[in-house]
Amino acid sequence: MIIPEGFPKIPANFEYETEVVQSTDGEHSIFLNWFRKKGSSSERGLLVLHGQGEHGGRYQHFPHFLGEEYDLILAPDLRGHGRSEGIRGHVDSFDEYIDDALLAWNILTARLGGSNQADWFAHSMGGTITLRAFQDSPDLGVRNLILSAPGAGLTVEVPLFKRAAAKLLANVWGSLQMDTGLIPETLSHDPAVARAIRRDSLHHTKATSRFYLGFVAAMERIREKPVPIPRQTRVLFQLAGEDLIVSTLDAEKVFEALNHPEKKKLFYPGLFHEIYNETIREAVFRDFLDWVRKSGPAKGGA
User: Fold this and answer.
1) From CA 63, how far away is CA 111, in angstroms rounded?
2) What is d(CA 107, CA 44) in angstroms, rounded to the nearest whole number?
3) Which residues have CB under 8 Å from 292's CB, separation 6+?
4) How far apart are CA 211 and CA 174, in angstroms?
5) Per-residue confidence at 3, pLDDT binned at 50, 70, 90?
6) Distance of alpha carbon 114 from alpha carbon 188, whole angstroms
7) Positions of E strands within the chain
8) CB under 8 Å to 116, separation ≥6 — which residues?
9) pLDDT of res. 4
10) What is this structure's pTM?
11) What is the Cα–Cα distance from 127 to 252, expressed in whole angstroms?
């Protein structure tokens, strides 16, 4: 995998491992990227859930910035992404992504031996998946939930005629791939990030009509139905000030609707969508660490 210029490599006290598991529905093989601290008893873990079009391998800099806090970091490739099986940018149902996320979470917590020292990080569409997962299964035993630019709505509204065409196409050829038109330079101000994306053969810009409709429906449900995050799970929203991909305003509304005693929202003026790949990423990681270090072990329960 390619690490952008200027990004730190995996620290010497960490090992990179891979694993392939079967999806819950038995339809796809799911690729897991593991970052494990050498000689560790693996008591503290982090799940990293990527966004649409990318993959878990893009989070190789997380052990560098978060290695003092975690012994084990798991970054799966969702189906249709990275080195996992599946049509690029396609699912028949958005719930398939939720199944993949919960599968990875269960694998991580099992590897930790039930220490209840597991946190959950998600970016963009990964945030959409995460919030939908909590709507269906809130009692996950997550200690800290950190959401980076979570997808609760799109920055640019898709014209009505295109939405109508997507519905028609979904019934006729729902798995037909179309290009999303993503411009890497809109993700980060760091030119190295854009160059790395363009060279990354595992990064795709494909989406199907059935995926699009499922994604939009998932975001609508997040906006319209409360997300019952347990009181024992502390919640941090980190939002980009100049997000050209997902709507920061919609994410703020979801945050404000959370009936939760321990939640925090951080806003980063001037930053594009991938705040953890921005030119001031060190500050973004520091905010992450400041938040999780104030928590104790998760106890589970609603």
Assistant:
1) 18
2) 14
3) 69, 119, 143, 144, 146
4) 8
5) low
6) 37
7) 14-22, 29-37, 45-49, 72-77, 118-123, 144-148, 177-179, 206-208, 234-240, 263-268
8) 141, 143, 297, 298, 299, 300
9) 66
10) 0.93
11) 13
Nearest-angstrom CA–CA distance, 223 and 218: 9
Share of the chain above pLDDT 90, in %: 80
| The predicted structure's pLDDT at residue 40 | 82
CB 267 within 8 A of CB 241: yes
Residue 161 has pLDDT above 50, yes or no: no
Closest to 80 measured CA to CA, from 122, 121, 51, 47: 51
Residue 164 has pLDDT above 70, yes or no: no
Are 258 and 286 in contact by the 8 Å Cβ rule? The answer is no
User: Among residues 157, 105, 107, 161, which one has the least CA distance to residue 133?
Assistant: 105
How many residues does this entry show for the chain?
302
Confidence of residue 43 (pLDDT cuts 50, 70, 90): confident
> Which of the four pLDDT bands, split at 50, 70 and 90, describes residue 295?
confident
In angstroms, rounded to a whole number, what is the distance separating the alpha carbons of residues 246 and 149? 7
The set of residues, in sequence order, having a beta carbon less than 8 Å from that of 110 and lying 6+ positions away, is none
Task: Decide if pLDDT at 216 tops 50.
Answer: yes
Q: Residue written as tokens 């990080």?
A: 121
Summary count for the chain: helices (H), strands (E) = 8, 10
Give which of 231, 222, 254, 257 is closest to 132, Cα–Cα: 222
Strand partners, 2: none
Q: Are 194 and 2 in contact (CB under 8 A)?
A: no
